[in-house]
Structures are given as C-alpha cells and as structure tokens.
Input
Amino acid sequence: MSKKTWGAVDVSKPSLDAAVEPSAQRWKVSNNRLGIREMIKRVKAINPAGVVVEGTGGWEKSSVKALAKVQVPVRD
Output
C-alpha cells in the first residue's frame, strides 16, 4: 500500500478499535497483550505512513509503546 495510508486506534479499557484510511479497513481487538500483538501484526502488514492513537486515561500507553517498539510512526 501507499505510504499515504494512515491508521487510527480508538482506545478504551476493554478494546482497541482500529481503522485504516483510505482503504476503510476496520477491526476490533482486546486491549491486552494478545490484542495489541494482533493489532501490530495487521498494522505492519499495511505499512502505513503512521498511526494516530487516541489517548484515553492512560489505556493507550501499551499500544503506543508497542507501535514505537516495532518502528511504526505513532502519534497520541
């Protein structure tokens, strides 16, 4: 996919709702280690220009750290 592809993650305590634009792909995973791992796998396969993570009372920290660790550009 093009580097103009962007991801977004809406964070809540129980889940991560992810979306990729402009492809309109959407999915939901649990906000735990397994869910974050699945989200990373799917995001890396798309190779986006970056991912925007909604900050929600600290529940986003694990996702942001995991994305940064695998060198996916991330903003929160």
Summary: The first strand starts at residue 6 and ends at 11. The chain has a mean pLDDT of 92. Residues 6-75 form a domain with the Nucleotidyltransferase; domain 5 fold (CATH 3.30.420.40). The chain has two helices and five strands.
